[in-house]
Write a structure and sequence with these properties.
It is built from 11 helices and 8 strands. It has about 270 residues and is of the alpha/beta class. The mean pLDDT is about 95. Helices cover about 40% and strands about 15% of the residues. Helix 3 (about 40-50) runs parallel beside helix 4 and helix 5 (about 100-105) packs parallel to helix 7 (about 125-135). It is globular. The structure holds 5-iodo-2'-deoxyuridine-5'-monophosphate (5IU). 5-iodo-2'-deoxyuridine-5'-monophosphate binds near residues 36, 91, 157 and 214.
């Protein structure tokens, strides 16, 4: 599978412009780390983004947990993304009928389409959610061009997750049906071999983001289950997502560097570097 190839090779051959950019960023910065910056004020978010920016490929936000979201949040995030060459992933987990998610994505208070390169959705509502988000982002008058993409939430890390079996298979089906907008998956492993109703193309190259990565802890008191960067990347993660493991560390910059180093070494081991 493509996960044996280097990010540089995948960047040069990938048909999706945002996937190419993602792999280029990883290669340029020698980082496959996504920091999940789950802080609750704009000042904390922008401070983390600026300090950790050099060591990460992507920042993942939950913009609706900020107590003071404003124009300054958007401007600050966009400026820092350019300054440090990282992409923005709003972990909004859209999960509604097509008509509603189009408005949640492209209208409304949070203006997600304006600043977030990557979004994600659950396929619980069925294929229509993917179709609707693709339709909005690929409309001729969509202002942000081909610089937007979707990850399908195919599995979850929490204890007792119901995102398994037929749900995970449907995630793969819809990714294969909308490859020009679906970058890949949020999942705990590579999904290329999952049973699917849609035939796998020989050159298929979906990107796998794995959450629940932590070097110090096995889980939390609310059902989160962790694995290490080595384990996640060994199972097929292309990008590892760490939240508290980085931002609650005594020194978040040192922690980010440690995840960057371990994530990169695990990647090099996988591609045989
Ligand atoms: N997140 C998960 N598990 C999942 C999915 C998303 O933890 O299956 I999909 C989010 C929740 C949180 C971050 O924003 O990833 C993990 O944070 P910690 O590393 O602090 O547990």
């Amino acid at each position: 599978s493509k996960s044996q190839l280097t990010y540089a090779a995948r960047a040069s051959s990938h048909p999706n412009p945002l996937a190419r950019r993602l792999f280029q960023v990883a290669e340029a910065k020698k980082s496959n780390v996504t920091v999940s910056a789950d802080v609750t004020t704009t000042a904390e978010l922008l401070d983390l983004a600026d300090r950790l920016g050099p060591y990460i490929a992507v920042i993942k936000t939950h913009i609706d947990i900020l107590s003071d979201f404003s124009e300054a949040t958007i401007t600050g995030l966009k400026t820092l993304a350019e300054k440090h060459n990282f992409l923005i992933f709003e972990d909004r987990k859209f999960i509604d009928i097509g008509n509603t998610v189009q408005k949640q994505y492209h209208q409304g208070t949070l203006r997600i389409s304006e600043w977030s390169h990557i979004i994600n959705c659950s396929v619980l509502p069925g294929e229509g959610i993917v179709e609707a988000l693709a339709q909005t982002a690929q409309a001729p008058d969509f202002p942000y061009g081909s610089d937007r993409g979707l990850l399908i939430l195919a599995e979850m890390t929490s204890k007792g997750s119901l995102a398994t079996g037929a749900y995970t298979s449907a995630s793969v089906d819809y990714a294969r049906k909308y490859p020009s907008f679906v970058l890949g998956f949020v999942a705990t492993r590579a999904l290329g071999e999952v049973e699917s109703e849609v035939a796998k193309k020989e050159d298929e190259d979906f990107v796998v983001f794995t959450t629940g990565v932590n070097l110090e802890s096995k889980g939390d008191k609310l059902g989160q289950q962790y694995q290490t960067p080595q384990s996640a990347i060994g199972r097929g993660a292309d990008f590892i997502i760490a939240g508290r493991g980085i931002y609650t560390a005594a020194d978040p910059v040192e922690a980010a560097k440690k995840y960057q180093q371990q994530g990169w070494e695990a990647y090099l081991a996988r591609v045989g570097g």
